[in-house]
Amino acid sequence: MTLDPVLARIDADLNQATARLFELLRIPSISTDPAYKAHCDAAADWLVADLQSIGFDATKRPTPGHPMVVGHTGGNGPHVLFYGHYDVQPVDPLELWDNDPFDPQIEDTPKGKVIRGRGTADDKGQLMTFVEACRAWKAVHGTLPANISMFFEGEEESGSPSLTPFMEENRAELTADIALISDTSLYDENTPSIMTQLRGLLGEGLTITGPNRDLHSGSYGGVAMNPARVLARIIASLHDDDGRITVPGFYDGVPELSNELAAAWDDLKFDHEKFLGEVGLSDPAGEKGRRPLEMIWSRPTCEVNGMWSGYTGDGFKTVLPSKASAKISFRLVGTQDPHKIRKAFRKMVEDMLPPDCTVSWSDHGASAASVMTTTHPAFAQARKALSDEWPNAAAFTGGGGSIPIAGHFKQILDMDTMLIGFGKDDDGLHSPNEKFDLSSFHKGIRSWARILHAMTS
Amino acid sequence: MTLDPVLARIDADLNQATARLFELLRIPSISTDPAYKAHCDAAADWLVADLQSIGFDATKRPTPGHPMVVGHTGGNGPHVLFYGHYDVQPVDPLELWDNDPFDPQIEDTPKGKVIRGRGTADDKGQLMTFVEACRAWKAVHGTLPANISMFFEGEEESGSPSLTPFMEENRAELTADIALISDTSLYDENTPSIMTQLRGLLGEGLTITGPNRDLHSGSYGGVAMNPARVLARIIASLHDDDGRITVPGFYDGVPELSNELAAAWDDLKFDHEKFLGEVGLSDPAGEKGRRPLEMIWSRPTCEVNGMWSGYTGDGFKTVLPSKASAKISFRLVGTQDPHKIRKAFRKMVEDMLPPDCTVSWSDHGASAASVMTTTHPAFAQARKALSDEWPNAAAFTGGGGSIPIAGHFKQILDMDTMLIGFGKDDDGLHSPNEKFDLSSFHKGIRSWARILHAMTS
User: Residue B320, Cβ neighbours under 10 Å: how many?
Assistant: First the structure.
């Protein structure tokens, strides 16, 4: 089957493709907040209907959390499974958005047209690049070039509690020759990327309790333990002066970068001054003596994602708080064991507690890092196809974010994954005013059409 | 004029006095939150009307913030100025209250009847003890035994920004022979107290900014500065391992306790295990080597009253926050200079900032400690009158809280102050389920009637 008419169809259909994406973006499918449960369900229904319209036998599949969407075409050729997620991050602080996050708009910017709204880049806009490539292929040739399965989840932004049980229960149905995922970024605007290593993620919530109620800092200040001070001291102790993480055993399984990969990454000439400059920073703040790209792609981290205690409103309140809480996450690399690190972290915190303080914990997910097998032939085929669509040849890159599903595909389904995404660094993932470039959407659809062609011709 | 019929009248009128107090308690006069501005105004109006009903020429006096209430009776005898505040603390976390904080109730408890609601002890219930004593005196004798002025403010819980300008503009009108304040506690349920030293208060708000927007901790974690970590490190550094505060020059002007006062306080046999045990604590957490009572009454402190950064809602969000904020207060003693300490604290924080971080500040008030001149004859008169009302003799005590007005009375009006209050340690000031014992209210009114009698007979 020929590629050129498919590409032409994609170009001609772009406005309609954008309109379809807007329908999905308007559904506020925030998975972490129970108030949006019905909206997550509605997003799944929308995807089922859309896949059915292209000929997939798509169904909504219940889980204890938000539903999965699974669809198949059957047919000849290699069997590929495309994965995406229809849930999105919360939108707070809402006042920092210039427009309603769930009323997407096309905006003209100095760098070109962008699609603005929550979920545009992460991940609805990217998910739809693959769906639209299939639609165009079907419209032109009446059939798809491969045996394609779709697998969408609605809990990616909230720890994916239902994902591995569902994969284990549906192992045969979900296993294909290779998995494809579009939830990552271009290396730069001219250089597509196939991500070959991703960091894992360990999420922890903790609350330290001192007094059994909030106290007046005049009556009790000086004699009563303040849990906010205890929490600050614990957080401050998590890094040493060289930026290394102090949890015992944390660096077990952290590999040094190979000379080959170090050289390839140096060739990318990563401009950390520009990367940091765009967010108002200048100084690489990670471990001393590491390349900035290493800090993001291949070194583990410990970050405070949230922290709160006492009075946080306007004005002042001289309270000595009863509780202090934090949400802390670790990005993991190599063969670091998230469960071992969770245990060591909790023990370290518990050992630091002064008399009269207790700690309670919340488990916010644990996934190891993923390292892909780049010798699978699909990697070379996709690299060639991407290089045909974009100005520069595709690069094998690392990723700082965590897409635990790639690890699950390997561990549960023994399936390799290609991570090919079209986002940009300034998309504002998880932030106010998230966007996805219209050109990313358009060329993303074209890229998948080319990759499907390369894998089957 | 005789005292006994006044005391009898107070006993007979207790239900009506409580009903009047409830009217005032039902007005949610939270001064720190602009949303309650009209309610603060309504509380001032209520007091003006109530004072007028007892014969005061009371008026509401505008300020740039919440209004003052001032009223005079004129007449012979010593001139006393009674001060109180009609504003209250915020009520969050609201879910920890058993009842509406602004729907006061009389509750039976194992320790006796209590008045439950925001402001019952701090300070509406205490303020009304003096007003009710005047009302009873007027009802029995048709006149008051002294030349009495009333002075109520509505910004005590929000840093009193209008207070000193108002005092300076109305110096002659507000100057009396002595000031009386009821905003403190009994030493214990049987022992009334006249507080002769109070800690000062310096309130600071700070926000540390790193990246110019919230970032994805996958894309940026490891290379971008996290301001929550910076704030934690700053807060953790404010105390050394012995519990001493590390701000340079902080201890300038902190006196050692005199042998005389140390002995008098030791005589009080302060039961710190019981005091801390009631709030779920056991270990005096202040400077090593200090008496627990010293930690509260005569040592300076630094406390975190609020702290927040990043995502604090349900679930988890892998944000690398742009900002981290805290509200920090210092309790001051002796001749510590709040302005000098503010400057040293800000410099210390600014010196600790890593590259790419900035800090912005909010000034939440600054007052020095107060030490009273206990040789004024009113102190002996009041001590005798209180000892007649309560089982034990009245004690001269210290106070951990900050009532800056006592310092202002001395500095601006050259007037001594007697701090005589009827609260208890378990009143829950600034906390959910604040209460004031009905016996404190009743015996408080009787105590003021006795003190007015002792000062004028």
Answer: 32
Chain A residue closest to B236 (CA)?
A233
Examine the predicted complex and report whether its ipTM is higher than 0.90. no
Do residue A213 and residue B32 have CB atoms under 8 angstroms apart?
no
The answer to whether residues A25 and A104 touch, using CB atoms and an 8 Å cutoff, is: yes
Q: Cβ separation of A219 and B96 shorter than 8 Å? A: no
**In Å, how far is A272's CA from the nearest CA of chain B?**
9
Of A218, A283, A305, the CB nearest to B400: A218
Q: Which chain A residues contact residue B284 at CB under 8 A?
A: 223
For the cut 90, the answer to whether the pLDDT of residue A399 exceeds it is no
CB atoms inside a 10 Å sphere around CB A263: 10
Inter-chain CB proximity A33 and B313 less than 8 Å: yes
Largest Cα–Cα separation, chain A:
81
CB contact under 8 A, B355 and A205: no
Positive or negative, the Cα torsion across B28, B31, B34, B39?
positive
Radius of gyration of chain A (CA): 23
Amino acid letter for position B140: V
User: Could you give all domains of chain A from N- to C-terminal order, each with its CATH number?
Assistant: 4-198+369-456 (3.40.630.10), 200-254+300-367 (3.30.70.360)
Q: Alpha-carbon distance A452 to A381, whole Å?
A: 9
Task: Give B396's pLDDT tier (boundaries 50, 70, 90).
Answer: confident
Q: Do B306 and A304 touch (CB under 8 A)?
A: no
Residue B207: strand, helix, or coil = strand
What does the pLDDT read at residue B21? 98
Collect all residues of chain A within an 8 Å Cβ-Cβ radius of residue B271. none
Closest residue in chain A to residue B272, using alpha carbons only: A223
CA dist A84 and B2 (Å) reads 87
How far B434 CA sits from the closest chain A CA (Å)? 11
- The mean predicted confidence, pLDDT, of chain A is 95
Q: What is the pLDDT of residues A279-324, one digit of tens each?
A: 999 999 999 999 999 999 999 999 999 999 999 999 999 999 999 9
Round the average pLDDT of chain B to a whole number and report it. 95
- Residue B90 gets the label, from left (phi > 0), alpha (psi -120 to 50) or beta, of beta
How many pairs of residues across A and B have Cβ atoms under 8 Å apart?
A: 361
Per-residue CA distances from A374 to A378, A379, A419 (Å): 9, 6, 11
Q: Locate the chain B residue with the closest alpha carbon to A198.
A: B218
State which residue of chain B sits closest to A304, comparing Cα positions.
Answer: B228
Question: What is the distance of C-alpha B82 from the center of its chain?
Answer: 16
> Which residues are registered as beta bridge partners of A309?
A324, B307
CA dist A77 and A66 (Å) reads 32
pLDDT value, residue B375 = 83
